[in-house]
């Protein structure tokens, strides 16, 4: 091959139409053998070029010249050659772009890893520092929201006053479909002013009346930060969950998807359901209307047989699909539904396993009376094996309930896709209502399952009892639930924004070469598309921050349920002491009763 470095195309006209590579590779490739053929047969089988054109080397290929001489007896013309060259260049451009992308990844992968490491460190520092800055940070965020609304009130009043002085009213404008025109009338800004003012007033009243519950939410966030600091291994537990999810999806892909979807893996893992049947092959030719091809086109063939049909140029044996006859093939649809049900069920079970394991680990932190001395050793490992041994059935039952709702949603989406062209407005309205209802039902079941898994990890009871107890406990403390949920969402959103924006800005300045103070070995590499490593870094930072903050969110929910149970079951006496932190007891005005010996010592 060293003597022939350039690729020559036998027929440049074949580049005009796209070729299905997957179908071509599935026709079966055979090694060439030494054979003696006549000239016509060799040309028909594309073993020799039918014509030669003057070419020039470019990109490792022989590109024909458009202005080359064409034989008079030939069916070629300049238009055909130009179309073939354009098709070839389109293919080369696509390959060139993909090659440049791989080159950029290869040149910048270690810098991308550094950016991901920075996002990991930022996420970890944010969670660990919440024990110190949770209160001030929540205060700053709340003041920021109030400040934005206050500026909105000022801006609306300014615009309203200006338009009122000009006398621009909605009666002069009339009705119009141009929504931007309503910005020039005073009534629009008056309505916006009233709405924002009402919202500002509601938020101020909520802050005044719910300040005690906001202090409790901040204290729980600080406790969650301490719990994560005591059990750092919990931050990396989502990696195990991700691996288990990947295994479930890979197994389903290998057994259920058609071979054209997973053709890269068919040599090792065939798609058993989609390929359950005998393969069918048919004759195909580019010019099926030729007299020599009409007798064989669309007839069955075997790609392993040697065929010698010379009167039909370009005749090939094409793969069509798998036969649908037989009892197994007739029930193939049912097997596919069973496979989808199993996929959803196993995925939900894996997610439930991760939530229950984390809940068990964080519950062991809360119910340790003297922290950190009473925290058991290896709490995450102990919670993992305890969950697998005692709670597998409960998690499977909860995952099954969620799976059934998700399957119904999938069926509704399928029906909506099929009925999208229907003109019946009643059917479309009914479908929209059903989709909305089942979406809300899925959200509710996820919320209920999450808290049920926490109660399972704490008390070890079955799913139904745990779900009922968790729901009733939350309903008795609904205001605290709402306040804690919103404060936690606000903090985690700010944390994600901080991590992702920080990594994105740093990546932008680095990969665009806007940090001139760096030494030569620390300079950014020469890239074809500088935005590619920036986007990869931002996406990776978001995934890392979401994984870390999901653990923190589970910790907050677990400690919150334990806190509510502690309030209802204990009274601070020697027999039933509170397990909450001293900060929480101080906020609630509660305290534990001291033993008589400690009282005498303190009196002395």
Automatic annotation (TrEMBL):
<feature type="transmembrane region" description="Helical">
    <location>
        <begin position="109"/>
        <end position="130"/>
    </location>
</feature>
<feature type="transmembrane region" description="Helical">
    <location>
        <begin position="231"/>
        <end position="253"/>
    </location>
</feature>
<dbReference type="Pfam" id="PF04515">
    <property type="entry name" value="Choline_transpo"/>
</dbReference>
<dbReference type="GO" id="GO:0015297">
    <property type="term" value="F:antiporter activity"/>
</dbReference>
<dbReference type="GO" id="GO:0016324">
    <property type="term" value="C:apical plasma membrane"/>
</dbReference>
<comment type="similarity">
    <text>Belongs to the CTL (choline transporter-like) family.</text>
</comment>
<keyword id="KW-0472">Membrane</keyword>
<comment type="function">
    <text>Choline transporter that plays a role in the choline-acetylcholine system and is required to the efferent innervation of hair cells in the olivocochlear bundle for the maintenance of physiological function of outer hair cells and the protection of hair cells from acoustic injury. Also described as a thiamine pyrophosphate transporter in colon, may mediate the absorption of microbiota-generated thiamine pyrophosphate and contribute to host thiamine (vitamin B1) homeostasis.</text>
</comment>
<keyword id="KW-0812">Transmembrane</keyword>
<protein>
    <recommendedName>
        <fullName>Choline transporter-like protein</fullName>
    </recommendedName>
</protein>
<dbReference type="GO" id="GO:0015871">
    <property type="term" value="P:choline transport"/>
</dbReference>
<feature type="transmembrane region" description="Helical">
    <location>
        <begin position="349"/>
        <end position="369"/>
    </location>
</feature>
<feature type="transmembrane region" description="Helical">
    <location>
        <begin position="390"/>
        <end position="412"/>
    </location>
</feature>
<keyword id="KW-1003">Cell membrane</keyword>
<feature type="transmembrane region" description="Helical">
    <location>
        <begin position="137"/>
        <end position="154"/>
    </location>
</feature>
<keyword id="KW-1133">Transmembrane helix</keyword>
<dbReference type="InterPro" id="IPR007603">
    <property type="entry name" value="Choline_transptr-like"/>
</dbReference>
<dbReference type="GO" id="GO:0090422">
    <property type="term" value="F:thiamine pyrophosphate transmembrane transporter activity"/>
</dbReference>
<keyword id="KW-0813">Transport</keyword>
<feature type="transmembrane region" description="Helical">
    <location>
        <begin position="531"/>
        <end position="564"/>
    </location>
</feature>
<keyword id="KW-0325">Glycoprotein</keyword>
<feature type="transmembrane region" description="Helical">
    <location>
        <begin position="452"/>
        <end position="475"/>
    </location>
</feature>
<feature type="transmembrane region" description="Helical">
    <location>
        <begin position="189"/>
        <end position="210"/>
    </location>
</feature>
<keyword id="KW-0050">Antiport</keyword>
<feature type="transmembrane region" description="Helical">
    <location>
        <begin position="487"/>
        <end position="511"/>
    </location>
</feature>
């Amino acid at each position: 091959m060293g003597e022939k470095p350039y690729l020559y195309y036998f027929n440049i006209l074949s580049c005009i139409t796209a070729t299905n590579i997957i179908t071509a590779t599935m026709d079966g490739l055979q090694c060439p053998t030494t054979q003696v053929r006549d000239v016509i047969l060799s040309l028909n089988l594309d073993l020799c070029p039918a014509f030669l054109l003057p070419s020039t080397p470019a990109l490792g290929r022989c590109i024909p010249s458009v202005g080359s001489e064409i034989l008079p007896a030939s069916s070629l013309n300049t238009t055909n050659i130009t179309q073939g060259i354009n098709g070839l260049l389109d293919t080369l451009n696509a390959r060139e772009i993909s090659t440049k992308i791989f080159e950029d990844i290869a040149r910048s992968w270690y810098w991308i890893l550094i950016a991901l490491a920075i996002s990991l460190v930022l996420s970890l520092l944010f969670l660990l520092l919440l024990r110190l800055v949770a209160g001030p940070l929540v205060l700053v965020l709340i003041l920021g929201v109030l400040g934005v609304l206050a500026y909105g009130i000022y801006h609306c009043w300014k615009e309203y006053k200006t338009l009122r002085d000009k006398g621009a009213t909605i009666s002069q404008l009339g009705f119009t479909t141009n929504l931007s025109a309503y910005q020039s009338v005073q009534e629009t800004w008056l309505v916006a002013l009233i709405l924002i003012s009402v919202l500002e007033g509601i938020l101020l009243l909520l802050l005044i009346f719910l300040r005690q519950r906001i202090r409790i939410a901040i204290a729980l966030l600080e406790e969650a930060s301490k719990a994560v600091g005591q059990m750092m291994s919990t931050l990396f537990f989502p990696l195990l969950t991700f691996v288990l999810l990947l295994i479930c999806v890979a197994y389903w892909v290998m057994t259920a998807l058609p071979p054209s979807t997973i053709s890269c893996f068919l040599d090792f893992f065939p798609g058993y359901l989609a390929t359950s049947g005998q393969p069918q092959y048919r004759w195909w030719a580019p010019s099926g209307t030729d007299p020599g091809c009409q007798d064989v086109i669309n007839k069955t063939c075997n790609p392993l047989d040697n065929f010698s049909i010379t009167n039909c140029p370009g005749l090939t044996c094409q793969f069509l699909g798998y036969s649908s006859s037989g009892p197994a093939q007739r029930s193939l649809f049912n097997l596919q539904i069973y496979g989808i049900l199993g996929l959803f069920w196993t995925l939900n079970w894996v997610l439930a396993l991760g939530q229950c394991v984390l809940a068990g680990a964080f519950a062991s932190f809360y119910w340790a009376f003297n922290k950190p001395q009473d925290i058991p050793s290896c709490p995450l490992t102990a919670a993992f094996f305890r969950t697998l041994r005692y709670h597998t059935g409960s998690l499977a039952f909860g995952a099954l309930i969620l799976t059934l709702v998700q399957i119904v949603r999938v069926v509704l989406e399928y029906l909506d896709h099929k009925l999208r062209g229907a003109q019946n407005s009643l059917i479309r309205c009914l479908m929209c209502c059903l989709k909305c209802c089942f979406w809300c039902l899925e959200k509710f079941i996820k919320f209920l399952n999450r808290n049920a898994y926490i109660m399972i990890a704490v008390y070890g009871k079955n799913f139904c009892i745990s779900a009922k107890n968790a729901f009733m406990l939350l309903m008795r403390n609904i205001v605290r639930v709402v306040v804690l949920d919103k404060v936690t969402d606000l903090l985690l959103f700010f944390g994600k924004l901080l991590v992702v924006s920080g990594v994105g800005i740093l990546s932008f300045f680095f990969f665009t070469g806007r940090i001139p103070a760096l030494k030569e070995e620390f300079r950014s590499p020469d890239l074809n598309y500088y935005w590619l490593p920036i986007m990869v870094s931002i996406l990776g930072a978001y995934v890392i921050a979401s994984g870390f903050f999901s653990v923190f969110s589970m910790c907050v929910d677990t400690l919150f349920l334990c806190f509510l149970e502690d309030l209802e079951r204990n009274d601070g006496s020697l027999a039933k002491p509170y397990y909450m932190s001293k900060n929480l007891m101080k906020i609630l005005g509660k305290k534990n009763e001291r033993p008589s010996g400690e009282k005498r010592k303190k009196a002395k």
